[in-house]
From TrEMBL:
It comes from the Bacteria. This is KilA-N DNA-binding domain-containing protein. Residues 15-93 form the KilA-N DNA-binding domain. InterPro entries: KilA-N_DNA-bd_domain.
């Protein structure tokens, strides 16, 4: 655990994120003796001047939990922002009172540049980290090359704060056979059906099954044996590389099969309806037998 640091007579617990020393808005308000919310408001008013990744970092609620920063932000914080040294200096630039000068000096010299337990680690090279994770992902039995690439990109983001796949514009990868797999919505447009209807048809055809209780990163559907020649599971990175979502896509060839299935199914329904009508006309309501009069 990092030792506390004294700034202007106040004890401060240093916050380190991926090898960098950072500071929260609440810490700035407290040390500069400003009303709660002052630092946050000033940041929002001048956010266009701050560079994401250089002057500040944004964290989702899940990242706050995984980085063990729950004591830095209030409970149930949906998105947290932490400032680097450059971001802090930009934010407090308008602070010109005597206290501000003293606090700035101590934060820069003692907090951000502290040695010993709080010594900042040198950030690892992104290409080295990516290659290491890609090699690890490739160790899995029957590892898919495309998914290894995407998985390594996600892991590199967690380690270095940057996803090289997204930087290169690679948010999804085509299958090795170069089949232009499509989503159910795209398949539906080819045959005049909605994506929901396509999913129902694929289930009825025993090509896929709906997965109950799927996680936010997993697909809601899973291929069955009959669907494997036509379907493929893709890992697609989310915005700013924060996690990925599995998407089940299908070969365009599946569209004609779905159409034939729907046509046959519709014909069977019409035939069944016709038989019911025919039976109904053949069996009218029978009259009750008349009772004999004595």
């Amino acid at each position: 655990m990092t030792k506390e640091i004294t700034i202007n007579g106040k004890s401060v617990s240093p916050v380190d994120l991926k090898g960098r020393r950072v500071v929260s808005f609440a810490m700035i308000d407290d040390l500069h003796q400003r009303p709660e919310g002052t630092a946050s408001r000033n940041f929002r008013s001048n956010k266009k001047h701050f560079s994401l990744g250089e002057d500040y970092v944004e964290l989702t609620a899940d990242e706050i939990r995984r980085q063990s920063l729950t004591d830095v932000f209030p409970p149930r914080t949906p998105k947290g922002i932490l400032l680097t040294e450059s971001g802090y200096l930009m934010l407090v630039k308008p602070f010109t009172d005597d206290l501000a000068w003293n606090v700035q000096r101590e934060l820069v010299n003692v907090y951000f540049r502290a040695k010993g337990d709080a010594k900042r680690k040198r950030a690892p090279a992104i290409d080295t980290v990516f290659a290491r994770y890609h090699r690890i992902a490739s160790l899995r039995p029957n590892a898919d090359p495309n998914q290894c690439w995407i998985a390594a990109g996600r892991a590199t983001y967690e380690k270095c704060g940057e996803n090289p796949c997204e930087t290169l514009g690679i948010t999804s990868m085509e299958a090795p056979d170069q089949t232009n797999h499509k989503t159910v919505t795209e398949i539906g447009k080819m045959i005049g059906m909605s994506g929901q209807a396509v999913n129902k048809a694929l289930i009825a055809m025993s090509y896929q099954v709906k997965v109950e209780g799927a996680s936010s990163t997993s697909s809601n559907y899973e291929m069955l044996e009959r669907g494997k020649p036509y379907g493929r599971m893709y890992d697609e990175t989310r915005k700013r590389g924060k996690g990925a979502q599995q998407v089940l896509k299908w070969s365009p060839d599946i569209a004609e099969q779905i159409k034939r299935y729907m046509d046959v199914n519709k014909a069977a329904e019409l035939a069944l309806a016709g038989k019911l009508v025919e039976q109904d006309t053949r069996a009218p309501f029978a009259k009750k037998p008349e009772t004999a009069t004595v």
